[in-house]
Design goal:
mainly alpha, 3-stranded antiparallel β-sheet, two-stranded antiparallel sheet, 14 helices, 54% helix
Length: 357
């Protein structure tokens, strides 16, 4: 009844506007946190344990109310619900797990509705393009200043970071230590992954909305290249330069061969001159050794993850259980994340990777 009532006041333009706003704000984390006792660890509030109502949630709920919700069948979620129920059963923090499960159901419901209604590719393309442009400008400002911008950006999800902050992702640029771009994401690698996925979606939408190429059609590629360079994500760079550009953009083998020759030459020059590098990162063997000896160096820290994890199915982990670090040691603090700041549910990591809060 409620859906039918609201659907009378839902012109297509308003629906398209809501979809555009959802796509644009999907890369932000503006929300209201609730702080029950289960979100406190040693009296410290842990944000990702907190049930949160995001601005994105309100937009999606409003969009679903303007649609005929009877078109969304429970059978669309039949593969996800057993996983979520099992995950909730074995969760160490049921309230946090329930909150993220409801978010997942909400986001999937919105995605399913996109397939059942005539969506304008131009609206989706414009919203995602503006979001990519916004993240690029913010990332450039962070790297240029060496710290976060703060202010309104904080409420959109920007972390309070600087070059001198502990456990912050850093790199070297022409021999100087530089901040790897975060934008509104939790880590530079997440930002790079989101940029790659956004580029692929934009390439697909461009074929649907305007098959003819124009000079402006290369702007998403330019923005993504800038973001991948600023984040210095190795895996994202491999995917972008090794697969997306040569196979998704270049049409014949001759330009592909020329491209790979230029790519190998440029890569060799960058590796030998240290123009862009992450040599300040400790090697993997050192990271594993430090992770192994960390509990003995800081006796007050003890793993708090419940042993019930070993009883869970392979696709289920307990909900995140966090313990704060009383101090930060260079090269040690971020290693403790593996043992003390995680585990987290893999399916939620995937959702977060693709920019959902």
């Amino acid at each position: 009844m409620i859906a039918a009532y609201f659907s009378r006041f839902a012109p297509r333009k308003l629906s398209n506007l809501l979809v555009g706003l959802i796509i644009f704000f999907s890369a932000t984390q503006l929300g209201f946190h609730f702080w029950p006792s289960s979100t406190l660890v040693y009296g410290i509030r842990i944000d990702y344990l907190s049930p949160t109502l995001y601005f994105l949630d309100l937009l999606i709920i409003g969009d679903l109310l303007f649609l005929k919700l009877e078109n969304l069948s429970i059978y669309d979620l039949r593969l996800v619900l057993p996983l979520l129920l099992t995950n909730l059963l074995f969760s160490a923090n049921p309230l946090s797990t329930l909150s993220w499960s409801l978010h997942l159901v909400l986001y999937l419901s919105f995605i399913f509705t996109l397939f059942s209604r005539p969506a304008h590719a131009g609206i989706l393309h414009l919203a995602l393009f503006l979001s990519l442009f916004f993240q690029t400008i913010l990332a450039l400002a962070q790297v240029a200043l060496g710290h976060s911008l703060g202010g309104l950006m904080y409420y959109l999800g920007e972390r309070t970071i600087s070059v001198g902050s502990p456990s912050i992702a850093l790199a070297t640029f022409f021999g100087s230590v530089a901040l790897r771009a975060y934008a509104t994401f939790s880590h530079p690698n997440v930002l790079a992954g989101w940029a790659l996925v956004s580029l692929l979606i934009l390439l697909r939408l461009r074929k649907v909305s305007s098959p003819a190429r124009s000079p402006y059609s290369y702007l998403p590629l330019i923005f993504t290249t800038i973001l991948v360079s600023l984040t210095q994500s190795r895996s994202a760079a491999l995917v972008l330069f090794g697969f997306v550009i040569p196979f998704a953009l270049l049409r014949s083998w001759r330009p592909r061969l020329l491209y790979f020759v230029l790519l190998l030459t440029t890569s060799y020059s960058l590796l030998t001159t240290s123009v862009l590098s992450r040599t300040i990162d400790p090697p993997l063997s050192e990271r594993l050794d430090l992770q192994r000896i960390f509990p003995s160096l800081v006796p007050v820290l003890k793993p708090v993850s419940p042993p019930i994890q070993s009883l869970c199915p392979i696709f289920v982990y307990s909900s995140p259980t966090t313990i704060p670090l009383p101090f930060f040691c260079p090269g040690l603090a971020y290693l403790a994340f593996w043992q003390f700041y995680t585990p987290c549910d893999p399916i939620f990591f995937i959702i977060h990777y693709f920019c959902f809060p």
